[in-house]
Amino acid sequence: ISVKLMKIFLKMKVFNFLILLLFLSSCNLPKYYFKDDTITTGVNFSEGKWLLDRVQTSKEIEDKLTKMTTDYFGNKLNNRFNTVFSEKVLIAQKNNFPLTSEELKQIKIGTNYDYFIQIKSGSLKNELGSIDTTPARFNNNLTNEASVQLIIYDLNTQQVIYNKNTFGVTGNPEKNSNDVTLSKSSKSLLYGCLKKIFKDLDKKSLL
Predict the structure, then answer these.
(1) What are phi and psi of 200, to 5 degrees?
(2) What is the predicted pLDDT for the residue at 170?
(3) 72-84 pLDDT, tens per residue?
(4) In the 3-class helix/strand/coil scheme, how is 10-69 assigned residue by residue?
(5) Using CA atoms, how far apart are residues 182 and 134, in angstroms rounded to an integer?
(6) Under DSSP, is residue 96 helix (H, G, I), strand (E, B) or coil?
(7) pLDDT value at residue 26
(8) Which of 43, 64, 113, 131 is 20 to 30 A distant from 181 in Cα terms?
């Protein structure tokens, strides 16, 4: 390679590096955390039949959350997993969240399943959007927020065996003077919250 080509190559690498730094400095990185961690164990995926309730969220998000959840549990459980949509079961179309012991008894009678999964999303806060052009001095207190709670019940004992409530938030970092910032939308944060729960299950559960 000639010296001239080498210089051009080095200039391109420096330029790309500067573009990357500029991009990262404009990004509001999301933070995810569990509201509480009272249940510190996972579940045992190796036994029983599992049923997913209808995801309680807005219509525009329901299909995406349902697919994410179906893909995750389907890969873990194969033919021992189903949803209330694809299985003929005698339960209410919309259940309370969370469920009482008596409601769990009725679901056991109406489904003959061993485990029941419920998911509910919290309210979304989308003050920044995905691309925010508000001058930095005005947007220090603006945030995008989302939350998801996933509960797994043992229908045989009518007990909660797993419960995680996850929050995701992104906002303008302190001392960030950029007037144009990139942030995850509240929808993206919502999906990230669910993924965090799945990672927690992967880490703590038995296959």
Answers:
(1) -65, -40
(2) 86
(3) 999 999 999 999 9
(4) HHHHHHHHHHHHHHHHCEECCEEEECCCCCCCCCECCCCCEEECCCECCHHHHHHHHHHH
(5) 11
(6) coil
(7) 47
(8) 64
pTM: 0.80
Task: Find the radius of gyration of the CA atoms of the chain.
Answer: 22
Find, among 205, 203, 194, 204, the residue nearest to 71 by Cα: 194
Neighbours of 111 (CB within 10 A): 19
What is the 8-class DSSP label of residue 97? S
CA distance 41 to 21: 40
H runs (alpha helix) in the chain: 3-25, 59-77, 101-111, 186-204
Q: What does the alpha-carbon distance between residue 64 and residue 20 come to, in Å, rounded to a whole number?
A: 31
